Amino acid sequence: MPQPAMDDHFKPRDRNDVEAAVQWALGGGKSLEIIGHGSKRALGRPAQYDATLDISALSGVTLYEPQELVLSAKAGTPLAEIDALLAAQGQALAFEPMDYGPVLGEPEGRSTIGGVIAANLSGPRRIKVGTARDHFLGLTAVSGRGETFKSGGRVVKNVTGYDLCKLLAGSWGTLGIMTDVTLKVLPQPEMEATLILFGLNEAEAGQAMAKAMGSSFDVSGAAYLPDYLAARLDGLGRSESATLLRLEGVKPAVAHRTEGLERELRPCPAMAKLDERLSRQLWRAIRDAAPLGADTEAGARPLWRISAAPSAASGIVARISPASQLFFDWAGGLIWVAPPATPDCGAAAIRRAMAEIGGHATLVRGPAAARATIDVFEPADGALGALTKRVKESFDPKGVLNPGRMWAGI
């Protein structure tokens, strides 16, 4: 396998090279930073690594069967390449993975499919189809022991013993280096439309989104933006708060369901409908948290991603700084929060809110000094912390793979 360059940078060509890189690290008591194109490199605890293992050369779709709704690819394959291939067949990754580039000051379009799965990225359609983890069928990976293992297959129900796909999705490269992944794909909706309710406050928007999600109109996106963020998005045309409800499917059904949902939600101060082009543009911006992106007024602020029960959204917001900029996705189940810049990035208030109400908070954007001293991911304490350490030790007993990225000492 290629030896590390002068800057201690491995770029393996195949799975055997990945194994050899891990064996090199084990033999020398070294640690490895695992990256693809580095689009999420600034997310997580800052840590010192002895070498970088760059899997971007492990690229290419290895199997695609449109009729079977299944796709396999090497982990370093650009997400854009997979999206283009699927779109040509009228299909897509239904979980709509976000691109972290716009909020981390990186160029957009640099995500790899391995990075998407490692971070368990899911966009607005999560409320309808689930997370990336739910569409992850199989993998080949190399553990921190330098051993290759496989899990899953090409169908959803193919699990005996541990479901390692579920375990590695969202593990941020701390348990294994994925070299190949297999995913379920779905037909791309024929068209979409968005119904907008203007002028609602947070509580009213929460009630409207809950009512829409509980209806028979099959809503596939539900978000709320206060007036100061709605004004940043093209296509809304008004500087008022905006509650957004997306409907997808075949054209006649979308038109019928949009009209029915509009009747269901009356009376409302003001409503509008977006056509397909503007709707797609708008939901892409919401998917990527663009209203709080690095190039916006909020770009100098820290950014938190809070996942909680939709009914808890108002209570969480009431417990954090009133000077925060924020918006809701997932019908209130996902809150993007940019608090004022402070030494702890607002962590004290946010962690207190999580303890009192429940939920998970991740610091997505913040200076390295703060990320080194506060919990970037939801704290793994008590029994959960002990279990997390045991799992890490099972896959990576010597702490070779991304040690300390998620939690100190793990």
Can you tell me about this structure?
With 410 residues, the protein is of the alpha+beta class. It folds into 3 domains: 188 residues, Uridine Diphospho-n-acetylenolpyruvylglucosamine Reductase, domain 3 (2-Layer Sandwich); 96 residues, Alpha-Beta Plaits (2-Layer Sandwich), CATH 3.30.70.2190; 82 residues, Alpha-Beta Plaits, CATH 3.30.70. The chain is 29% helix and 23% strand. The chain has 14 helices and 18 strands. The strands form 5 sheets. The chain has a 5-stranded antiparallel sheet. The chain has a 4-stranded antiparallel sheet with strand order 12-13-11-14, sandwiched between helices. A 4-stranded antiparallel sheet has the order 16-17-15-18, with helices on one face. A hairpin with a 4-residue loop joins strand 7 and strand 8. The protein is globular, with a radius of gyration of 22 Å. The protein starts with 8 loop residues before the first strand and ends in a 15-residue tail after the last helix. 46% of the residues are buried. About 1% of the residues have low confidence.
